Structure formats: structure tokens, C-alpha cells
């Protein structure tokens, strides 16, 4: 939990999270405070990575400070500011509860703070140490093409920094690593997790893309690039195959009659991504319209790509829900990794570009709406 008027971007989960002061990385405001209470599952301990602590210096950090307290052992860490920085970039505690307190008085400069944390036994890593760097969103420097693994805490999607590239090409190695991992769909921002990637030879141009709620930038040549792997990269296995749709169905379709009196049917079958010309469209004014894909048999569905129709009309879908069914009768709305509420996927902003959204966890179903 967090409280106070000095809290910036914050995402706290039982196994990992990210937190920052207000306005980070801009100058933090005067006379503010924020208190974050980090609570890990019983029997685990918290590991905290100091990404950035830039608070205006003062004697004993009296004007602006960062203080961490372990109520279970009575241990305190800090206070920290620019002239009293943490002695190590990673703080390993022996407690499942830590209180993080930030406060400021009058000051002129300072970016504030950016921290992340994980537990000693977070899901999916077999209880191993998360191996967080000083900046878990930055890139270690292994030999070219060698696979390596990095732990990304929850909440990296909205941290400051740019990414260049896309999931198919890879990303410039100057990209914010964990933010790029969310864009690539290898982790869910709500949970974080271990990512496997390799550093490979750079390419001339990195094309931008909108995926999983993030825009990447179009960028030019870099010496190296980052390539994320959803399976063991040593085996060069792929899991991005396009699934065949046996049949399309829809709640309704638009029977268009143009100015010359010519008919055009925007039927469900025209919804295939590779279709040239106009696409599917629901009947004008239809409420709760849906498009249904029949995959023929139960399949493991890891994501979806959508595109609008620029054929004569500038049509596209800006947001949508996803439902799935194994028998075509009983339907379940997709709730995503948090499992708390029905997920709303961010769709297209124009009729030209493709937008990707990843299902974490995947859907096992024959029918998808």
C-alpha cells in the first residue's frame, strides 16, 4: 500500500513491484511525503534495488530523505540523499515487510527516487535470487548472441525511458529493457517475471509498433540489439505461429449500399487479417457487437493482432474485451494475469497499423470472441 501526496508511479504486488517519487525523473515537489508498505508472503524476504536516488543534499539528509525500516527486526536503512547514498545497489533484507518513507522540504534540484523490489522466492524462478541489477530496466553486457536471463519487477511499463523496435525485429540495445519486455509480450506488467533474451548484431532500421499498451519508436542503426525469447533460445524454437481460423461468425454485419446503389457486404469472413479490401463491420448502431473465431479444435492462443479497414472508410476498433469457449456454449471473459477484473485491450488508433496484444496467461479454447 502507499499513502501521501509525494507518491509517483507505483505498482506493488506480493512478489515484486516498482515505485517512484512524484514527477520522476523530473524534479520532485516541495513539502511532500510518501509512505510505501511492502508486504511479501510469509517465509520470504524482500530484495530492494535502488534504481535512482537523487535527493538534494543536506546535513544528515534533513531536507529531503529516503528512509527504509524493517519493523520485524527493528532495523533501519538510511536516511539517504545525494551526499549519503546507499552503500550497495541491492539491499537484501531478512524480512517480508519493509516500510519505505520519502519526504521533502524546500529544495531546488533532484530527480527523486526510483526503486524496485522482488522476493526471495518469486513465481517461476524456482526460488532462486532474482538477479536484479542496479537498474533492473537496464541491460547487462554478455557476449554477443549469448542468452542471458534478467528478472523484471512488476510496474516497468510506465517508468521513464524509450524503446526502439518491435517483437519480430528485436530492440535497440539502448532501449529500456523491462519496458521492452512488456512491449514484446514476454511478461505481464502487473506481475513482472524472469525474461530470457540475447544480444545480437544490430540492424539498419528498427520499425515502431504499438503492442500491449506501449508505443515503441522508430530508430536507426545500433551496434547491437536485444531479442526476447519465449522459449529456450538455444533451441531456436518459435511460438509465434499464426493459428488457422476454420470459420468466422459475428453478431451482425453491415450491408452497405454506396452512393451509386452498389451493394457491399462487410461479412464476418472478411475479418481475416490478410484479407484485401474491406473488412468485417457490425451493423451500424449495433450494441455489444462481437466477432467470433472458430479454430477447429482446442488451441493454445498466446495473443491477437488487430487492424482497421482503410478501404473507402477509416474504420478501426479502439478497445475490446476477449471471451473464449471450449464448446461454443459456455463463455468466459478474459481477466488477464491479475485475475481481478475483465481486461480491456487497447486496440487501434488508425486504420493502417497493426496492434498486438499478448495473452498472459494464454487462452486454451476452440472459440474466441
Automatic annotation (TrEMBL):
Keywords: Disulfide bond, Membrane, Phosphoprotein, Transmembrane, Transmembrane helix. Pfam families: CUB (PF00431), F5_F8_type_C (PF00754), LCCL (PF03815). It is a single-pass type I membrane protein. CDD domains: CUB (cd00041), FA58C (cd00057). Disulfide bonds join 7-34. Residues 150-226 form the LCCL domain. One of its GO terms (cellular component) is plasma membrane. Signal peptide: none annotated. It is found in: Membrane. GO terms for molecular function: signaling receptor activity. SUPFAM superfamilies: Galactose-binding domain-like (SSF49785), LCCL domain (SSF69848), Spermadhesin, CUB domain (SSF49854). Residues 232-369 form the F5/8 type C domain. Residues 7-120 form the CUB domain. This is DCBD1 protein.
